[in-house]
Amino acid sequence: MKKNTLALTTAHKDLRLSWAKDHMTWNNECHKVVWSDEKKINSDGPDGFSYYWHDLRKEEEIFSTRPQGGGSVMIWASFGWGGKSSICFVESRMNANGYREVLKKRLIDIGSSMGESDWTFQQDNAPIHRAKINLTWFKSQKINVLPRPSLSPDLNPFENLWGVGVGVGVGLGVGVDMCKPCVVNPVFVNGVYINDHTQKAHNVSPFQSGMWSSRYHQYGKWHGPYLFSLLFNDQSMKATGSGVDDVGSFTIDGIYSLKTSRLGLTKQYKRGTGNPLENLGHQVTIQLAWNANNHKFEGKWFVQTSKYHGENKFELKFDQKHKRSPTDYEETWF
């Protein structure tokens, strides 16, 4: 059987050789690079995996496909010396604007954590990646992009990860994390964030102890507002609270940063309260950033249980009508 390969011209080969020579002395420079890639996964098996290594001491694996196929999904992920993102599901037919939105939501927050403060972003030369509007956006965000010669997937170590993670994990039925935030709350709260709404100076800290009004979007509509208490401790940079919504009674634990104006909360529902169909005694991860223009925190909630997976919008606004002192909450919360 003939082996398929990329049709490299002499020009392609020269560019690849030049790129290799320019980077062959890299050492710690590699620590600054955040590698990224997309991958299409078919339900009846990953693209391009027609063969597998077979242990002769074990039985052969039987792989079945459906006549019309089982559909497919497109995923995006990134990793660097300092860590990795979660696998994020994106639109299968993404345009330049859609790709930029993925980077805004999934990359900006954690780039400096995976690389370093002066991190460099790596992507392939897909048309939506190299679109003029996206190259201009990279410059406006002061994100360095690592040049890469065309037809050179082997220069991206992500290809090895796809080969192992997708070929083995998804191909053999091991699922990937869905409806989970790409980063844990501490990374989200303390990460670098570039956004005009959140980087404005505040005369008053947005983190005020008292009653807060919240609402969340689920099942195609907004739920709320619901009031719950929050106490912010500027020494420990932790937040605690409690409340009740249409799911049930809950407690709140979280962390926040005065520098980034971000808030990461974990909502723990008390089983046996509220709606028995919705309340599984589960946790909800909430990640919010302060919007100075709207005077409220905005972000997303994430739930992943054995019975339900979901994520959507979440908003939190201080309720001036129910403002109370921190000592009031020490009596009622603890």
TrEMBL record:
Record's Pfam families? DDE_3
Q: Which domain of life is it from?
A: Eukaryota
Where in this chain does the record put each Tc1-like transposase DDE domain? 33-164
GO molecular function annotation: nucleic acid binding
Q: What is this protein called?
A: Tc1-like transposase DDE domain-containing protein
The source organism is Rotaria magnacalcarata
